[in-house]
Amino acid sequence: MRIGIAPDGLALVRTGIWRHERALLLGQVRAGGADAAAVGTALAMLLGEHAVAGAAVTVVLSDELVRLWQVAPPQGAVRMADLEGAAALRFQALFGGAASDWRIRADWSASQPFLASAVPVALLDALKAAARAYRFHLVEIVPQFVATLNQFRKQRRPGAWFGLVHGGVLSVAAYDGKRLAAVRTTPIPPGADRDWLEGHVAREALRVGLGRPERLQVCGPAPRGWASSIGRLKFACTLFEDETDPLWPDSARLALAGRAP
To answer: Hey, which CATH number is domain 155-239, 3.40.50.2300, 3.40.50.1980, 3.40.50.10320, 3.30.420.40?
Structure first.
């Protein structure tokens, strides 16, 4: 089973062990906010209606609930403590607070910049408490963007950037060759067409000091007009097919982020 958690709602989805099996939306509830207490209350409402005892559960957290950032390893770093310290200092510089109340995980590297993520400790405690109360096995807690990036990693083409559309927001992973250079997020304005997308990508390339990508590969419910067409020479845009039921709420789509195809 998979649980999608966002500030405005939660969803429980059952997935099969066979590829041909369709995912089943078991339930959804509205949430009262992003704090751990509100999530815990919503979880109790959601799980109290379903038999989840003994189930293996993956939790996908919307990007509003987590922090994502790039970390440059300090020169001469040789210990994990050096990398952890660099990630904590960068967290404080970007988000204006100490990382003591957050749990940091990353693709640790002493030789190149790496992506780090942080989840509030209080939220992790609420999830662990729910696992104990409802007797399910909490096998993974993963941020939405990280889950999706890993899901489509093998499909990323050379020279391409990767984008995720969810809840009216576009998150973009900018690459410098094979290296992930930055993750940028912005709300999608009403009526955002291909011209808006091209302008946005061009601005983000300038901000991170890279050339415009050859291609942008996008997953999620992106506007169909973003796809490449004749006469569009600035960069190509590929929309990965969205196999989720279009009538499902965003929290259910969130629950399936990172699911193996």
So the answer is: 3.30.420.40
